[in-house]
Amino acid sequence: MIRQPFDSFNGHFTRLPFTNQDTMCPTPSRIFIIKLLAIALSFAELPLAYSQCCSNGINLLENYNPTFSAEIEDIPPGFQTDNVYSDFLGAGYYSVIVNRAWGACTQTPQFDHTSGDDNGDFLWFDTSYDATPDNPDVAWTPYDPLRPPGEENTIDVQPNTNYVFSVWIRDLGRNEDCVTGGAPIMGLRINGVDLAEIDLEQFTEPCCPAWVYLCSEWNSGNSTTALIQVESRIGDGWTDLGIDDVYFGTTLLDFDGILGNDISTCLDEDFILSPDLIGAEYMWNDESTNDSLLVTEPGLYWVEIQQGTCTGSDSILITISTTIQPIDLGEDLILCANSTLQIEPDIFPPGDYLWQDGSNNESLTVTESGLYWLQITSSCGNTSDSINVAFSPLPQITMPQDTTICPGLSITIQAVVDDADNIIWSNNTSESFIVIDQAGTYSLQASNGCGSITESVVVEYSESDLVMDWDVEMMENECGDAMEITAQFTGSGAESLLWSNGTEGNQVQFTHQGPQNYLLSLTATDLCSDEQNLQQQIVLNPIAVSGKIEMPNIFSPNNDDKNEFYQPLPELLPNEVLTSYNLKIYNRWGQLIFESFNPVEGWNGKSGKGKSPEGTYFYILEYQLPCSSKAEYIEGNLTLVR
Fold first, then answer.
1. Geometric angle at alpha carbon 279, from 64 and 202, rounded to 5°
2. Contact indicator for 48, 31 with CB cutoff of 8 Å
3. Are 297 and 320 within 8 A, CB to CB?
4. Which of 408, 524, 571, 578 is deepest in the core (most CB within 10 A)?
5. 3 state SS for 93-127
């Protein structure tokens, strides 16, 4: 910051004591407010000025160096002017200085408005000779190089909001005669609208010009940005303009509640009432003007407050009770999930505070559903209250996986929706499911009082991905006229499988009985009902049946080891097993005297009564050769001799 004294225009700037310090919110002798091109108010009108324009809110220009206190390297940061920055001024230049001691202010240097001494800085704007009311110089406008191109000199505002635009200004070029010098004409403008104007030449007292307060109210209407300009509107004479403490923000219209809630206590204790405002003047009910008031007995206490251009009042009732006042935590609440609630009683009687979680603060922060209670214990008694708090979750949607659809067919998409008051699909249906017949992206939005959530599912047209393959195993029987078949589908993409024998599924096992060959086939159907087939011819190779059993017509069971048994010729060995065999022998009276089912077991010529007599007998033989499809039948006569 510039701290060195320097000479310019025969003016001398130096650091001299300055005891009449102004504050950000000035006393009436330093305030002049002009609205809508009005002229400065007389001293008699100043109380009205307080109610018209009160700049005690948050300054939205805080980051734009409104007090010119930021460190200077080359060009002061945070703002722009139409002039060129320089340490040595002339028409068309500006600088940031500590004080100005020249002309009428040679003996009483002009310090900045913020501090009122050499601890602060202010803007010295030396108006160009070309400045006119129709073409004024911009003496100050905010500047942020990080804003979008063309909006570097604007700030963001809320639509339909009342704001206050104010600035402290000072004539820095008055001659020693306290009249001449060429005082500036200064104005305020927002978004091209002229809000206020003041001619500093009208103020001839004190001789060394004091800081003058100029402000205007402005409603943003539909605007979301504001182009703010402090202007110097005449170039005749010195027209040296001092600027400090630029303000743009909302306003606090009164001081209601500044003393806090009414107090009821059963304790014999003192209270200190303190509004704790910066730069404020007070008038208490006992006509004292201190920053605070000591209260030693019950009663109604009030204070009138003047904080610069802002005035207001507040009161508080202090009572002594023999019982503790009941507290109220409010009605039961239903809040949205992920929100936070701070529970506190409607009044704060003195005592020991105990919440259900064991904490002892005057308030409790709640993030979960439950029953919450507070108990206050004091020498006046106990009081308690409880409140039920429920947190309602956001809607939840469980959507099926992305899927496919067959051309010409329809599918149903079923979603699971929880905690929703309303649901709507992208095709404007409001059920939990939709039936679709086309590919696309289908989204579902679910909402309740706490918000909404959207989920989607992608449906694509299905392309046949059938891969046909199988494993077939065959086992032929010994005669070659039957085949045991085992087959398994080893492909992919099949929705259903049907085998040639009517079996469904991935695998089939059965026996085909010949003699005909067999065509094994498999039909596979995919999701879209497209079919493909596999086929394989099963060829049987039956063994040709040959040979025939012959029976002898005579045998002699006489123990000479020749023809001792009547049986087939040639004699069958045990491993020559027939499929079936039945030999029956009858006597001449038709009586069955021998029967065998074993081809190697012949008749020895005996019956139940011993040796059968010689003579003629009758036989019947039924048999079936291996791999033969039918039984053979033989009958005839035989002669038994000894």
1. 75
2. no
3. no
4. 524
5. EEEEECEEECHHHCCCCEECCCCCCCCCCEEEEEC
Asked if residue 568 has a cis previous peptide bond (ω within 30° of 0), the answer is no
**Cross-strand bridge partners of residue 41:** none
Asked if residue 570 has a cis previous peptide bond (ω within 30° of 0), the answer is: yes
User: d(Cα 4, Cα 108) in Å, to the nearest integer?
Assistant: 17
pLDDT of residue 44: 27
Region label for 92, one of left (φ > 0), alpha (ψ between -120 and 50) or beta (otherwise): left
239 — alpha (psi -120 to 50), left (phi > 0) or beta?
left
- Residues 165/215, Cβ–Cβ less than 8 Å: yes
Q: Give the chain's length.
A: 642
Q: Could you tell me if 413 and 536 are in contact, meaning their C-beta atoms sit under 8 angstroms apart?
A: no
Strand ranges, E, within 321-469:
333-336, 341-343, 352-355, 364-366, 370-378, 381-392, 396-398, 403-405, 411-414, 416-418, 422-425, 433-436, 440-448, 451-461
What is residue 250's DSSP assignment?
A: -
What is the 3-state composition of the chain as percent helix, strand, coil, each rounded to the nearest 5?
5, 45, 55
Listed residue (146, 2, 167) closest to 70, CA to CA: 2
At 566-577, the pLDDT tens digits run: 988 766 654 455
Q: Provide the pLDDT for residue 405.
A: 87
The answer to whether 92 touches 128, Cβ cutoff 8 Å, is: yes
Residue 138, token pair as written in the block: 């911009």
Among candidates 128, 176, 161, which has minimal Cα distance to 11? 176
Give the pLDDT confidence score for residue 278 in this predicted structure: 65
Please state the separation of Cα 373 from the chain's center in Å: 32
User: How far is the C-alpha of 409 from the C-alpha of 403, rounded, in Å?
Assistant: 14
Torsion angle, alpha carbons of 294, 296, 297, 299, to 10: 10
Euclidean distance between CA atoms 217 and 550, whole angstroms: 137
- What are the distances in angstroms from CA 216 to CA 156, 243, 534, 624? 18, 16, 92, 128
Count CA within 13 A, CB hemisphere, residue 472: 17
Token representation of residue 355: 């919440």
With tokens 């959530």, the residue in question is 453
Contacting residues for 254 by C-beta, under 8 A, at least 6 apart: 312, 313
> Which residues pair with residue 240 across a beta bridge?
126
pTM: 0.43
Tokens of 312: 């207001």
Which mean pLDDT values do the consecutive 10-residue runs of the chain (642 residues) have? 27 25 30 29 28 71 92 83 88 92 91 89 93 94 94 95 92 90 91 93 90 90 96 89 92 76 75 81 93 90 83 87 85 88 90 94 93 90 92 90 88 92 91 90 91 91 86 86 90 91 93 87 88 90 74 90 84 62 91 90 86 92 81 91 86
Partnered with residue 524 across adjacent β-strands are 497, 532
- Please give the Cα distance from 538 to 513 (Å, whole number): 11
- Name, in order, each residue with C-beta under 8 angstroms of 111's C-beta and a sequence gap of 6 or more: 18, 98, 99, 117, 118, 120, 122
Read off the amino acid at residue 98.
Answer: V
pLDDT score recorded for residue 17? 25
Q: What is the pLDDT of residue 501?
A: 92
